[in-house]
Amino acid sequence: MYPADVIRAICMANPGTGPATALSGFVKAHGLAGFVKQGLAAEIARASFSRMIKFWLQPVAHQTVFGKDVKQGTPFTKGIAGALATFPEVWTISPLENLKLAEQLDKEKKFNGLVDTSRHLMRTRGFFGGFYIGYIGMQMRQCLWTGGFFLTLDFFRGKYREVIPNKLASDILGGFSAGVFGTTLNCWTDVVRSVIQKEAVAATFDPKAKPAPLINHINPFHFLSRALSIYSARGIGGLYSGYPIKCVHLGGSGAILAVLMPRFKKMWGVE
To answer: CB neighbours (10 Å) of residue 76?
Structure first.
């Protein structure tokens, strides 16, 4: 899945760039080994924390907000609980997301691994200014995908079970479809935050560049203004750069989660 994430990141950070161009440019700069060196460690840590926090807290959020077990919830309540569970998730993964993207987009090889990237961002922009670039965009992205995933998972899974009696197959297809639905909701936020993060990291190498105001990282109006500028320049296609690759990436993630989570819950006796 990681090569798809790398190509997705390049396409989204450079609206209008196609997957083939992104792939050839990355391989030219880093070789095939780049897929196991450029940001992979940060992505493994990010994805692990992301899934663990989100799927642990979604049932907790549902019980806390709606006063009943998630199994008794509606698609709407499950979606809302999923969106709420992303707040501690994004607080945790934002530094890793910034480090990963900085390495993925490092075509000039300015960084030498995860530790070097961390030191550079901390030295040039400080903790919040370096590790929480584009925070509001990442929060919106996770809310939309997770909320959309939980909102539609049971629906898609049920529809597939009407025509496919095999439970495993319907779980895979239902999870993939719910993941694609979430991607359709959140793709534009990922494009905008990727552009913001790319420009902010590039500015750290320019001694004359002034750091962006810290408030910008949590200001939804600033984020939406950047979205409008991309739309004005590239249209809706610009805001959905990398959408097919992202569907593969997050559709696949949704399929894996739809298969594994209920089975792990049953195995651990918490279902």
So the answer is: 12
